[in-house]
């Protein structure tokens, strides 16, 4: 199951969120061809990804920033951009454009350090915007814990969209990252769990001053954890296309496409 949208419309155009999505996509497309050449791809990641062993040797500090704009594949990119699209606009709405950009970059840098300290001599490149996006999710949880998020549940042939409070969705997500980090070697390849956990925690901490300015616990009591504006409502619109096998009404002439005219 994974989130597909929330019911929390933003009050202004999230220019920074859109720009971050565009930057990640454009950068990925510029090195996409390297996936056909493993040696060239590894060389590229050596130069631009975060490699803890290089940082421990006093080199490769730039990767702390550049790694959050790189991805290890198309699904990695699409998954991260979906989460940023869902949760980023509302956090940007609350923080303002420049404040949100600084928050995003700070969360990504903090997430990189969180992963680094768990395996400072690892030579596995770390790439992805998920640490920074985890910070956005942490801020969203603090500001809108009861905002509804639509989850697409896929069970073999069953597809169903279910609205769930944000605190459940994000609480389950951070719980899975924590247990994943405990159960997996930090210097192994795969998911950078501690970057997710670190980014999420840093996002919450950086958002606390904003939450306090809104009233802190009084803000929650006043809004009941819901967005401070009417929630968006989604519904499916039926079409006039006739269903296969539809029975004709008595006394009506068949139309040219099998329906009634």
From TrEMBL:
* Signal peptide residues on this chain, from the entry's feature table: none
* Domain Peptidase S54 rhomboid, residue spans: 64-210
Q: How does it sit in the membrane?
A: Multi-pass membrane protein
Could you tell me the superkingdom of the organism this chain comes from?
Bacteria
Keyword Hydrolase among UniProt keywords: yes
A Pfam family this chain is assigned to: Rhomboid
Which GO molecular function terms does the record list? serine-type endopeptidase activity
Cell compartments where the protein resides? Membrane
Residues that span the membrane, as ranges: 15-34, 64-86, 98-118, 124-144, 151-173, 193-212
What keywords is this UniProt entry annotated with? Hydrolase, Membrane, Transmembrane, Transmembrane helix
Q: Which GO terms describe its cellular component?
A: membrane
Would I find Amino-acid biosynthesis among this entry's keywords?
no
As for family, the record states: Belongs to the peptidase S54 family.
Name of the molecule in the record: Rhomboid family protein
Q: Which organism is it from?
A: Roseivivax halodurans JCM 10272
């Amino acid at each position: 199951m994974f989130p597909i949208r929330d019911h929390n419309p933003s009050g202004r155009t999230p220019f920074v969120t859109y720009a971050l999505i565009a930057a990640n996509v454009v950068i990925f497309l510029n090195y996409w061809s390297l996936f056909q050449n493993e040696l060239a791809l590894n060389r590229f990641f050596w130069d631009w990804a975060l490699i803890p062993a290089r940082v421990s040797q006093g080199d490769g500090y730039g990767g702390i920033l550049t790694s959050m704009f790189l991805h290890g594949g198309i699904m990695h990119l699409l998954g991260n951009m979906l989460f940023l699209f869902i949760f980023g606009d509302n956090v940007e709405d609350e923080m303002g454009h420049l404040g949100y950009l600084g928050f995003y970059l700070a969360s990504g840098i903090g997430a990189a350090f969180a992963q680094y300290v768990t395996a400072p001599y690892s030579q596995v490149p770390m790439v992805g915007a998920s640490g920074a996006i985890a910070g956005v999710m942490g801020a969203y949880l603090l500001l809108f814990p009861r905002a509804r998020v639509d989850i697409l549940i896929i069970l073999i042939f069953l597809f169903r969209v279910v609205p769930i409070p944000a605190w459940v969705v994000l609480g389950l997500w951070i719980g899975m990252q924590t247990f994943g980090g405990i159960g997996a070697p930090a210097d192994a390849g795969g998911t950078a769990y501690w970057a997710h956990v670190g980014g999420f925690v840093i996002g919450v901490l950086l958002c606390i001053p904003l939450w306090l300015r809104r009233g802190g616990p009084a803000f929650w009591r006043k809004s009941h954890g819901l967005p401070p504006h009417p929630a968006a409502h989604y519904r499916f619109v039926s079409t006039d296309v006739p269903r296969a096998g539809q029975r004709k009404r008595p006394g009506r002439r068949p139309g040219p496409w099998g329906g009634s005219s």
